[in-house]
């Protein structure tokens, strides 16, 4: 018999532990695969989106999220596609956000909708927001996003800064000969707004045609050296419970992070799993091992015991790590918009 909520029973032995002894405390929920942008490293030119009938309802996502919290998950990140384009999305934030035991409720967004949602998200309990921004140039933004207007994202960041979240962070995917010459501009932008920034090595999910990932690979070490020429970077033990390695710049609020799946593999300390919008529990971003939770919640609409047991049993198939190899065609045919990273 499981405690109905975390606060009820003293937390003894971690429940969600995989075969490698890794404790899963972090769930990422992709609430939609759709987005108002079409970033070249996330989606192919032509995309087939999941039909609405295949999507989990927001109520089902809340139910699954709360089952994970019952099992010891303390951090939930809402992602997409672009989560804020999902209809009635505030319902999910307001209901999941008040779950006892959920200590860290965060969001990943492209910020275009933040002027509309920032205040309500803060009230709903969202503590931190990661914002995707890979360039400060309108022409490049239009190329990288295939149709976006950078002003919508920049206005979204201003709205989030004005709302006063615990922390805001820019996530920038650096591609050689696309935006690697803007690393310092992006750092200066983050410093000027007193927000964090993480530089991400591209993850090869899904086939794309816009660029050859091996040719555009720009490692975190290369990014580090570019920044190091202008800023002192002090290693920091700070973590947000995600894959970022952080550095501090003396006397500045901004933290510089690096997410380095290729050059500094982080799978040994993996603490996360992902729920896709159609209800697949993906045990690893870089593998296809998964469990269909949609079938479980629809077959047992009133029985969370079976849902929780299914989640516990899924730990047995959580893979050791990714096998990303930029020199080969992507092993994983699923695009990034199905998980949002
Ligand atoms: S690639 Fe898989 S194992 Fe590695 S950190 Fe990501 S989810 Fe965990």
Short description:
With 341 residues, the protein is α/β, with parallel strands linked by helices.
Keyword list:
binds iron/sulfur cluster; 16% strand; 341 residues; TIM Barrel; alpha/beta; 12 strands; 12-stranded mixed beta sheet
Largest sheet: 12 strands, mixed
CATH hierarchy class name: Alpha Beta
Q: What topology, given as strand order, has the largest sheet?
A: 7-8-9-6-5-4-3-2-1-10-11-12
Radius of gyration: 19 Å
User: In percent, how much strand structure appears in the residues?
Assistant: 15-25%
Helix content: 25-40%
Q: What is the name of the CATH topology?
A: TIM Barrel
CATH architectural grouping: Alpha-Beta Barrel
Alpha-carbon distance between the termini? Answer: 34 Å
Bound molecules: iron/sulfur cluster
Q: What is the CATH superfamily classification?
A: Aldolase class I
Can you lay out the helices and strands and say which pair or pack?
Blueprint: E1 26-30, H1 58-70, E2 75-79, H2 89-96, E3 104-109, H3 114-123, E4 128-132, H4 138-145, H5 150-163, E5 167-173, H6 183-193, E6 196-200, H7 213-216, H8 220-228, E7 234-235, E8 245-248, E9 255-259, E10 272-275, E11 280-282, E12 290-292, H9 293-299, H10 304-314
Parallel strand pairs: 1-2, 1-10, 2-3, 3-4, 4-5, 5-6, 6-9
Antiparallel strand pairs: 7-8, 8-9, 10-11, 11-12
Helix pairs in contact: 1-2, 1-10, 3-5
The structure holds iron/sulfur cluster.
């Amino acid at each position: 018999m499981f405690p109905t909520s975390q606060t009820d029973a003293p937390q003894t032995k971690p429940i969600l532990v995989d075969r490698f002894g890794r404790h899963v405390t972090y769930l990422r929920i992709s609430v939609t695969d759709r987005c108002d942008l079409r970033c070249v490293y996330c989606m192919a030119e032509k995309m087939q989106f999941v039909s609405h009938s295949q999507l989990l309802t927001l109520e089902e996502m809340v139910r699954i999220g709360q089952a994970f919290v019952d099992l010891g998950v303390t951090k939930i990140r809402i992602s997409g596609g672009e989560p804020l384009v999902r209809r009635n999305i505030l319902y999910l934030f307001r209901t999941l956000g008040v779950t006892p035991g959920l200590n860290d409720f965060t969001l990943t967004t492209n910020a275009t909708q933040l002027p509309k949602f920032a205040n309500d998200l803060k009230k709903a309990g969202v503590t931190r927001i990661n914002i995707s921004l890979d360039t400060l140039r309108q022409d490049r933004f239009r190329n990288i996003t295939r149709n976006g207007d950078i002003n919508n994202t920049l206005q979204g960041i201003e709205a989030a800064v004005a709302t006063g979240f615990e922390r805001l962070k820019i996530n920038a995917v650096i591609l050689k000969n696309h935006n690697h010459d803007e690393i310092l501009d992006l750092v200066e932008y983050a410093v000027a707004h007193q927000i964090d920034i993480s530089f991400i090595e591209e993850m090869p999910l899904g086939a794309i045609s816009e660029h050859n990932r091996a040719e555009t690979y720009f490692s975190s070490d290369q990014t580090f050296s570019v920044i190091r020429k202008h800023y002192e970077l002090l290693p920091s033990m700070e973590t947000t419970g995600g894959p970022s390695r952080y550095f501090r710049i003396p006397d500045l609020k901004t933290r510089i992070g690096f997410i380095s799946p290729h050059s500094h593999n982080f799978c040994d300390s993996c603490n996360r799993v992902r729920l896709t919008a159609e209800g697949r529990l993906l045990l690893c971003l870089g593998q296809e091992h998964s469990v269909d939770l949609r079938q479980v919640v629809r077959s047992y609409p009133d029985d969370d015991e079976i849902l929780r047991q299914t989640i516990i049993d899924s730990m047995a198939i959580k893979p050791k790590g990714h096998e990303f190899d930029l020199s080969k065609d992507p092993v994983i045919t699923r695009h990034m918009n199905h998980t949002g990273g």
